[in-house]
Design a protein that fits this description.
This protein is of the alpha/beta class. It contains 16 helices and 20 strands. It is elongated and about 85 Å long. Bound molecules: NADP nicotinamide-adenine-dinucleotide phosphate. The site of NADP nicotinamide-adenine-dinucleotide phosphate has 24 residues, from helix 12 and helix 15.
Length: 495
C-alpha cells in the first residue's frame, strides 16, 4: 500500500487533493497539518474523508513547517486521536506523553536528515518500546549500503516497520519497502512537490514501478550509474515486465564510484538478479566480474550484469545494438546487405559508446577514424583498436561514408548544438547519432535536410534494452512497446 502525503496551505485544497487521489486509487493519505496556513480545522479535514488517514504535524526541527507552540501541536495530535483518525504520527520523544485512545493506531517515528545511524537496531528497539503499532524510520542514505541495512531491519522487525532512506541514493528503499515487508511506503501528490528528498509521486510509484504488484517474490533489476535521475530505463523496462507478465521491478540505483564495489556485493541481498550499467561504471565493473561474456571481447566495458549463484557475469549489448541499427540503415541505403570493407567511418568522441561502436565497425571491415576532444583519450582508443585518429578541430578533413556521434553534444537541454557542421554533410553519407534525447537532434535534422540516411539513438537504445531484457528474462522483449514508452518519455514531460 502507498501512503500519499498531502501538504497544502488551504483546507479546501487538501480536501480536494485527498478526493482526487482516492479516485486515482490511493488507499491511505497522510494529512500534513503543519502545512495548513493559520488555525487547523480538523473536523473539516476529516468529515466524509474518502480514505483512512495518517495525521502528522511535523515540527521544523524534524523537517516540518509547524510554527505554533509545542503545546498547540500536541493538542492537535490529541484532538486527531479523539476524532478517531486511523493513524497518528508521534515522534519518539513525545510518544510517551500522548497515550493510546480508541482505535487510532500509533506510528512512532524518527527522522534523521543527516545520516542513517550506525545504531539503527537500537533506535528501532527504542521506538518499539513506545507502544507502537507501526514504526517509521526515515533516515538519509549517504551510501547505497544504507538501503540494505534499512530494508533488512524492516524484514527482521516484529513490529510492522516503514523504513525509508531519504535522498536519491535512498530511492530504492522506498520502492522495495513492500518487498521487505513494510506495511506501506510514502509518496507525494506530485513529483514537483516532494516533502522529503528522493520521494516519488503516487503516479510514478503506480505507473512506472507498479508498487502494489511488488511482493516478496518480485525479482529486482535496475540501472546503476551516477547521476541516474535522468535515466529512462526504469520506464522502459518496467513497462516491458508488466506487458510480459514478469514479476520483476527495475529501479534507478545512484551509486557513487567509491561505493560501487560494496553495492555489487550487496546486490544479491537486495534481490537483484541483473543490472544495466551506465556512466561512469561501465569499465569499473570489470574488476568485480567473475566472467565476461563473448559480447564484451575487445571492448572491455560492460553495460549489463547478471548475478547467478554468487557469480557476476558481464555482457555488452550497446555494441550489438549499435551495429544492428547501423546495418539496417546501410541495407536501406544500399538496397542490399552492405559490406563495410571500403567504407570510412568517422567516430566523434572517445568514451564508452565510441569504443563499442568503433570496435564493431572495425570488425565489420570499415576504416575507422576517431575524432576526440581530448587528444590523449582519442589516441588511446585508436591504439587499442589499431585505427586512426584526427584532432577534433580537423574532423572535417576526413570524408566519411559513415558519421557516428558518440559525444553528448546535442543532447537535452542543449538541443541547438551539433558536433558536425551541416555544410560538411553529403547526401551519400549515413549519419548515426547515439544521442536519444531528443530523438531528432540537430545533427539528424541537418542530415535529413542534406538527404543523408540517418540512424537514431532511439533505435540503438531500444535495441540495447531489448537485448538486456532477453538476458534478464530469457524472453523476447516487447520492442514496439519499449520504443513507444521511450518516445513518449522523451516527449513533453509528464512525471
Ligand atoms: P563518455 O564515456 O562520457 O564519453 C563521452 C565522449 O564525448 C568523450 O570522449 C568526451 O570527450 C566527448 N565529449 C563530451 N562533451 C563533448 C563536447 N562538448 N565536444 C566534443 N566532445 C565531447 O560517454 P558515453 O557512454 O560514451 O556516451 C556518449 C553518448 O552516447 C551520450 O550522449 C549517450 O547518450 C550516448 N549513448 C547512447 C546509447 C543509446 O543506446 N542510444 C548508449 C550509450 C551511450 P572527452 O574524452 O574529452 O571527455
Amino acid at each position: 500500500m502507498i501512503c500519499v502525503s498531502i501538504a497544502r496551505g488551504r483546507h479546501r485544497h487538501m480536501i480536494a487533493e485527498h478526493r482526487h487521489l482516492v479516485q486515482q486509487g490511493a488507499q491511505l493519505a497522510e494529512l500534513r497539518l503543519d502545512y495548513i496556513n493559520g488555525e487547523v480545522n480538523l473536523k473539516r479535514l476529516l468529515l466524509d474523508r474518502p480514505s483512512p488517514v495518517v495525521i502528522t504535524c511535523r515540527r521544523e526541527r524534524d523537517g516540518g513547517k509547524f510554527t505554533g507552540s509545542e503545546d498547540q501541536r500536541q493538542m492537535l495530535l490529541r484532538s486527531a486521536i479523539a476524532e478517531g483518525v486511523e493513524y497518528v504520527d508521534l515522534e519518539d520523544d513525545i510518544a510517551g506523553t500522548i497515550g493510546r485512545y480508541g482505535k487510532t493506531k500509533r506510528i512512532i517515528s524518527l527522522h534523521d536528515y543527516r545520516k542513517t545511524p550506525d545504531d539503527l537496531a537500537d533506535i528501532h528497539a527504542r521506538l518499539a518500546s513506545h507502544d507502537a503499532d507501526i514504526i517509521k524510520l526515515a533516515t538519509t542514505a549517504n551510501q547505497p549500503h544504507d538501503n540494505l541495512r534499512m530494508l533488512q531491519l524492516v524484514r527482521a522487525s516484529k513490529v510492522p516497520t516503514v523504513g525509508i532512506c531519504m535522498g536519491d541514493i535512498g530511492t530504492p528503499s522506498r520502492i522495495l519497502a513492500g518487498r521487505f515487508g513494510a506495511p506501506f511506503t510514502f509518496a507525494t501528490f506530485h513529483h514537483e512537490r516532494t516533502l522529503a528528498p528522493g520521494q516519488l509521486s503516487f503516479q510514478q510509484m503506480t505507473e512506472i514501478y507498479h508498487y502494489d504488484r511488488i511482493d516478496s517474490n518480485t525479482v529486482v533489476y535496475g540501472v546503476v550509474g551516477d547521476p541516474i535521475g535522468h535515466s529512462l530505463s526504469p520506464m522502459v523496462h518496467n513497462a516491458a515486465f508488466r506487458r510480459m507478465g514478469v514479476n520483476a521491478v527495475y529501479l534507478p540505483f545512484r551509486v557513487p564510484r567509491e561505493h560501487l564495489s560494496q553495492f555489487l556485493e550487496d546486490a544479491p541481498a537486495l534481490g537483484i538478479k541483473g543490472l544495466s550499467v551506465t556512466i561512469p561504471h561501465k569499465e569499473a565493473v570489470l574488476k568485480k566480474l567473475t566472467r565476461m561474456d563473448d559480447s564484451m571481447s575487445g571492448i572491455a566495458a560492460a553495460n549489463t550484469l547478471l548475478f547467478e549463484d554468487g557469480k557476476i557475469v558481464g555482457h555488452n549489448t550497446d555494441h550489438q545494438a549499435a551495429l544492428d541499427s547501423l546495418e539496417l540503415a546501410l541495407t536501406e541505403h544500399h538496397g542490399r546487405k552492405a559490406a563495410l570493407d571500403n567504407q570510412t567511418a568517422l567516430v566523434l568522441g572517445a568514451g564508452g559508446a565510441a569504443k563499442a561502436i568503433a570496435y564493431g565497425l572495425k570488425r565489420m571491415g570499415a576504416t575507422v577514424v576517431v575524432a576526440g576532444r581530448t587528444p590523449q583519450r582519442a589516441q588511446q582508443l585508436a591504439d587499442s583498436l589499431k585505427c586512426k585518429t584526427v584532432e577534433w578541430a580537423n574532423r572535417y578533413s576526413v570524408q566519411p561514408d559513415i558519421l557516428v556521434n558518440c559525444t553528448p553534444v546535442g543532447m537535452h537541454p542543449n538541443v541547438d548544438a551539433t558536433p558536425y557542421d551541416k555544410h560538411h554533410l553529403r547526401p551519400s553519407m549515413v549519419v548515426f547519432d547515439t544521442v536519444y534525447n531528443p530523438e531528432n537532434t540537430l545533427l539528424l535534422k541537418d542530415a535529413r535536410s542534406q538527404s543523408c540516411t540517418v540512424v537514431t539513438g532511439v533505435e540503438m537504445f531500444v535495441r540495447q534494452a531489448c537485448l538486456q531484457f532477453k538476458e534478464f528474462t530469457s524472453q523476447e522483449a516487447p520492442s514496439d512497446l519499449m520504443r513507444d514508452v521511450l518516445k513518449r518519455a522523451i516527449g513533453p514531460a509528464k512525471y
